[in-house]
Amino acid sequence: MTGFAGFEINGASAADMALIRDWADEEGWNPGESDRFAFGVADPGGFLVGRLRGEPVACISAVRYGAGFGFIGFYIARPAVRGQGYGIRLWKAAMERLGGRLVGLDGVVEQQDNYRKSGFRPAWNNVRHEGAPRCAEPGGATVPGVEIVDAATLPFGQLAAYDRRFFPEPRDAFLAAWVGLPGRTALAAVREGRIEGLGVVRPGSGASRIGPLYAASPAVATALLLRLAERTPDGNVAVDVPDTHPRAAALLGGLGLTPTFETARMYTGQEPDLDLTGMYGVTSLELG
């Protein structure tokens, strides 16, 4: 697509995906080191880069899920070109790509008014909690009757069906990559063959990122969180917690994690029906 004054919008290449990750890191978002490999399979055409006279200056993701949902992320214009209209053109291209769908995003709270102008309405805030979890109660990493297992050992159909409780559309390709990429750990809580929790931890630029963190109870969430933290180099983790789930925030606070960052989850239409009571941490601020 051709823009103005030497500005073009194209699909992202593999090299661009690495650059987008670096830009997000510079913004202080602490992206997962290998997240881009799962992002790429979610929707290969869903990542756009704006180039000014051939030089990348802006990016955005507009990922399609199923037939009716889309998610906006990675909306970044480089400081040197901000306020010149390039970001807005990229935004319009992304929204056109998701035309006719319910669209969600996680945006920094101070940008809510701008997103409202594009038809988005707030649903909740995701509050990032960071730190090295410490459980005062002995045996906090275990729950009677529940086994913590490698999620990769479970039938994938069972894992995907469980994920659908927390996401508006199937995302099987993304999920398979998300739980299976090298260097990360995916654990599931299983009771009598039923999944009662799922957590994934992966390296980041700062604290290791945990997401998703799904659980049937605070005890299961605690057990998963502690086990996942054990798989990190220094025990420091970051979890993005919906503020619609105050018990989750209280649980993480009780384990010694503190709020450090906040985003607004917003949608263009009716908020999807998700199991928010079981969502102790969202999967990704970039892809939902």
Order of helices and strands: EHHEEEHEHEEHHEEEHEHEE
Structural class: alpha+beta
Number of helices: 8
Number of strands: 13
Task: Specify the overall morphology.
Answer: globular
Q: Average pLDDT across residues?
A: 94
- Regions with little confidence, pLDDT below 50 for 5+ residues: none
Strand percent estimate: 25-35%
Task: Please compute the radius of gyration using only Cα atoms.
Answer: 19 Å
Profile the largest sheet. Answer: 13 strands, mixed
How many angstroms separate the termini?
27 Å
Oligomer: single chain
Descriptive notes:
With 288 residues, the protein is an alpha+beta fold. It is built from eight helices and 13 strands. Strands 1, 2, 3, 4, 5, 6, 7, 8, 9, 10, 11, 12 and 13 form a 13-stranded mixed β-sheet that branches. Helix 3 links the parallel strand 4 and strand 5. Helix 2 packs antiparallel against helix 6.
Give a nutshell description of this structure.
The protein has 288 residues and is an alpha+beta fold. The protein contains eight helices and 13 strands.
Keywords:
single chain; 288 residues; alpha+beta; 13-stranded mixed β-sheet; 8 helices; 27% helix; globular
Helices, strands, pairings?
Elements: E1 7-11, H1 14-26, H2 35-42, E2 47-52, E3 55-65, E4 69-77, H3 86-97, E5 102-108, H4 112-117, E6 121-131, E7 147-150, H5 156-163, H6 172-180, E8 185-191, E9 194-202, E10 208-215, H7 218-230, E11 237-242, H8 246-254, E12 258-267, E13 279-281
Parallel strand pairs: 4-5, 10-11
Antiparallel strand pairs: 1-2, 2-3, 3-4, 5-12, 6-11, 6-12, 7-8, 8-9, 9-10, 10-13
